[in-house]
Q: What sequence folds into this?
């Protein structure tokens, strides 16, 4: 995938409202990190449009204090992703810095209501250094999601 295509897909996924709901057991891989499918995900956020859950057992804490976190977003309605496509569920792996509430996308897969893969992307480890940390507006739904992520991460480790 070219850098331009990656940035376009990443910006669409990052701009989408945060979401979550049940998703059939599927496994997402990134490098040597695997999302657990045989354990319960912990719901960390819920509103009228989305439920967000974290895989507490698949989380990795790094020496610098950041985390690699696996999230599942389930929306109550379809989300447009472009070119006439929409998704209902997103599974993503994200680097999270709870001290600044910043995040970087590692990978994401989007699915329709039936579980069919709609889109995906992976950030190559060597390219992570070029991504900026994304901060959310305090008090926004997305900021509330990542506050929930950090609370769950601090409790699990």
A:
């Amino acid at each position: 995938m070219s850098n331009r295509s990656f940035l376009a897909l990443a910006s669409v996924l990052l701009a989408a409202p945060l979401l979550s709901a049940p998703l059939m057991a599927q496994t997402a891989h990134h490098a040597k990190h695997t999302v657990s499918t045989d354990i319960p995900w912990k719901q960390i956020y819920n509103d009228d449009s989305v439920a967000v859950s974290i895989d507490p057992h698949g989380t990795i804490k790094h020496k610098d204090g950041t985390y690699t976190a696996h999230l599942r977003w389930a929306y109550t309605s379809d989300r447009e992703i472009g070119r006439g496509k929409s998704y209902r569920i997103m599974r993503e792996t994200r680097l999270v810095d709870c001290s600044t509430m910043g995040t970087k996308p590692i990978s994401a897969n989007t699915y329709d209501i039936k579980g069919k893969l709609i889109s995906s992307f992976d950030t190559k480890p060597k390219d992570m250094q070029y991504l900026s940390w994304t901060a959310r507006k305090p008090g926004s739904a997305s900021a509330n999601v990542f506050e929930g992520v950090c609370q769950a991460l601090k409790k699990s480790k």
About this structure: The beta strands are 29-30, 33-34, 42-46, 50-54, 60-61, 67-82, 85-97, 102-111, 117-122, 134-135. The radius of gyration is 14 Å.
